[in-house]
## 1
Amino acid sequence: MEYFLIIISAIFVNNIMLAQFLGTCPFLGVSNKSSTATGMSGAVVFVITLSTLVTYLINKYLFLPLHLEFLQTIAFILVIAALVQMVEIVLKKISPSLYQALGIYLPLITTNCAVLGVAINVVTKEFTFGGGPAHMLNLGEAVVYAFATALGYGLAMILFAGLREHLELNDVPKAFKGLPIALITVGIMAMAFMGFSGLV
Amino acid sequence: MTRLQTFTKGFFKENPTFVLILGMCPTLATTTSAINGLSMGLATLFVLVLSNIVISAIAPVVPDKVHIPVYIVVIATFVTILQFVMQAYTPAMYKTLGIFIPLIVVNCIVLGRAEAFANKHGILDSALDGLGIGLGFTMSLTVIGIVREIIGMGSIFGYKFISGDGILVFVMAPGAFLVLGYLMVLFNKIAKKN
Amino acid sequence: MAAKSNLTNMLLVLTGTCLICSALLAGVYSVTAEPIAQTNKNILMESISAVVPDGVQISDAKPLSVGGKDSEYYECSKDGSVVAYAIKSEATGFGGALTLMVGITTDGIVYNTSVLSHNETPGLGANCTTDEQFKAQWKGFDPSSKILAVKKDGGDVDAITASTITSRAYALAVKNAVEAYKNIKGE
């Protein structure tokens, strides 16, 4: 039940893109086509889940016992950067087809603030789900939260890419062309997602 | 390019928000009011200037293949210092800006300037570049914050000029996208005329 | 321009940068740790003194179960005898946890309340920190004669306009604090 609430909350209620604004640059950058949006979403889900697992363990078993919390930001970003490189190398070796699909998006992910944002949130913020008490996430919850958050990001991106493909065909005023009309569309989407608030 | 141009290009011609479209996350998330936007801009400015100076100084000795990790470590160091200082002396602002302070590390503006400018230019030029781009970013954030605060809360820098609430949706998430979208339209119009 | 890469200088520069930066951070951390702790303490003390009578001595934090979860309370004494308790209490509002400091004098009456942290909607639920009418009703609230629930639920608490969920959470947090106060007194 707890896990179910975490998932609903992370995907819909506190959607990382539409409610928390994390990962906006790649969101606007690669949402031109449905196919690229799907590829990027896959890569993000993969990296966010994995990096949160690793940073959570590092924080819990290395930084907290040694009182090195002040290294959190610096260490997390290095872990993420290293992890992205490693994932790239491993994927190339064991699954060339998956690498073909996700490969070009992987280098972009290091600077996707959704990845660092989730990693920091998980170790610093207290969470409440479904009226339960606020608490720090345990390992299982952290991984489920990270996975669901990334799914929410992917959902927003794929939905938006679908809208944007239609937008291309429409005749919009010159000054609105490109990014401005895209931003206004995201605004309307964010309003729709606000309907979920108070659900969990 | 003269020193003056290095400094002023961030205000309009290479404005990080409206022209280069960089650092969108804090731009959208922290501009719920004029003062929040201004503070976020200044926090980014601080990191930008210092990391530009240090990176331009160390660039000649950093091997090509590891330059990105080294730059990131330098930037992350300044961000963490900023975190401590804000926690100690401006705790309320630190709480309001929250996670977007540590996230300055992955703000594309900072790494972008290091890559595109600071590692090819001298210390003074890099400092001016950081200052100019940082001020351009601060101005953009403040303007967005002012617009959202006026429409959303009916106040400006906290001074209320209408009684009651404004159109609340503008201080919430959707308003951020809408205001930025319309301001960009306005910016495009003005840029066309010039 | 960048130097040519070979294994030695790559290792040297990377390790060097990491070491210098970590040392620098450790230095800054040790300098700012004290002011950060002091600032946090000041904020806490202000929130406590806002909810208990003036001129009291505030004790260190003591553990207490409030609403079924671990929390803490502070004894406030004047001339050597305890006159009030400040109890930290939490409930889930519209946007997440709503944490209050509730001051209760030894006659069982709520002296005042203040919000420690919240995630409520700006302009709606977040008005629980600014709405004068809402805040004023907690001063001298007597839980033995009034019911701690919003009027919609048959209680005596005036809700904030259009923010029933926040008001409900606020009332629940105060109620839990009152229950916890009875436990302190019972001991």
## 2
Amino acid sequence: MSTARERILAAAKANKPAETKLPDVPVFGGDASVERFAAVLAGIGGQVSWINGPRPSAAELQQLFPDARLVASPLFPASVPVDQQTPISVLEGIDLAVLPGEIGVAENGAVWLPEPAMLHRALPTVTQHLALVLDHRRIVATMHQAYAQIPDAGGYGLFVAGPSKTADIEQSLVIGAHGARSLVVLLH
Amino acid sequence: MSHSIRAEKFVADVDRTTWHDETLWFVRQKRDKAVYGVPEFQELRELASQIKEHTLSRLDDYLVQFEAAAKANGVHVHWAADAREHNDIVLGIIRRHGATRVVKSKSMLTEECHLNPELIRAGIEVIDTDLGERIIQLRDEAPSHLVLPAIHLKKEDVSDTFHLHLGTEKGNHDPQQLTEAARQHLRAKFLAGQVAITGVNFAIAETGGVVICTNEGNADLGVNLAPVHIACMGIEKLLPRLTDLGVFTRLLARSATGQPVTTYTSHYTKPAEGRELHIVLVDNGRTQQLGRPDFRASLKCIRCGACMNTCPVYRRSGGHSYDFTVPGPIGAILSPNIDMKKHSSLPFASTLCGSCTDVCPVKIDIHVQLYKWRQVLAEANEIPASKKWSMKFMGRMLTSPKAFGVSGRLGRQALRLLPHGLTHATSLNTWAIARELPEPPKQSFREWYQQQEGKS
């Protein structure tokens, strides 16, 4: 008896239509300004804040997140050291994660966060609050330009656009469903 | 039971029907606003359509390419010809790990395969973690929409459900507080999850990775805390290249809810160190649909739900009236492929206005397929006798000018002479259930025209 794999592939081969062309996707232009990025991000519940360099200072963090007690970050000596082996019992208590984002997308406020930037894969969603540090020169107009700069997605990587949200109860928008309750992009 | 009989129950509550209609129309309007902000949106639709068509035209090649790339990434790839095989594979993986606690993010495929009841029967605790899915799971209901599974419920319903199951304050309808209660309840489940099951929005043949889009972050939280991830996908989810995602991520959320993009667009390519990633490739009728030239374009669907939000019939009859995993216009063209007899009424639950086709981000000719399914169903004798014979009679009458003239005269006379209770008897004339017949004219246009000729 043939395997499911063989049966599915044989049926797909037998039933598929005549081959059509794979189109080239043009790189559409668009507005890649910081203003657009900030406006769109504000529209989806996030916010932009300026910092002086790629590593936020203690004073800048204190001003932005006065209540954050347990903080994780690869950018400065943080209160909670996190790596891939960090147990869930530690991860679940984290108030704030400050992670280096790689690319910003002006059309939708998303920031590309590759695996090496996030210490532990669960950190960007398990933390109560998330801050992504981004070089403002790395903002592109659309997702096309963003993907053009991502040669492969790595083992894991994600675009994060604003805080976790839901509208599953009568279409009322509520910020803070399961992931981070707030998202700040720290531009420098 | 047909769509119209189920819809009758839904529309019995007039206020709720109006609310449902308006709520979904509001989502459609949000979609329009988002779409008009992208000057190249129509070009993107065409590109998405062409990319999907190309992928289907080489589906076997891309499946093989995807499998090889995924295996090279250390992913376990499984193949399931039908729902039975899919459920067995998933249960097998869970059992091999001795797991009893499963957290699940949204997956219409697992709904299609009825995975949850299978797992629960096998003694596994299955927790749906999308808020809408969790609400309907607690109520033991099916989703009524592709992306808004609890859209048929009002906040009072959710409040009652959470009071009963999560112990929230009775009569507290505040969405913010209800969501917070669900967050706390589900967080405990996430932290304790042993296996995470997810659906898949897109699978990339060249990288062997899968992409999952959520707003809540529930897929990422579940997957990245659990030791085992099982991603279940229909074989039509494939895209050839990573860069194709540029097109599809620009279309999906805008078409679905009017957002510029989903909050999380997550790319799972390799399992984390010491963990497992399983991908289950499921056919379950898809290769059969691929072999139907008139209907294969339905496989391009990216499950955004735009066709539902715009459909005048869906908005006023609710998702449960369709009694199929995928409701609305797209469900009405997918379902007859699965079971022509059971779903024979769905292609008729449409005005054929074409609005679904207009908003479809991958340009599926939904209303044309609805029309074509009607022909197929009639040929297969799967339409009610009353519809079949009245259509046959109408067909004859309308093709003969003589018969048409006679019938018109008889009809006008009958309407004038017969009592209203008889001409509008709903047992004989279902058309008149909610409509008034027009006042019969004294003569037809043809009769009038002939008189004019005599005069000149």
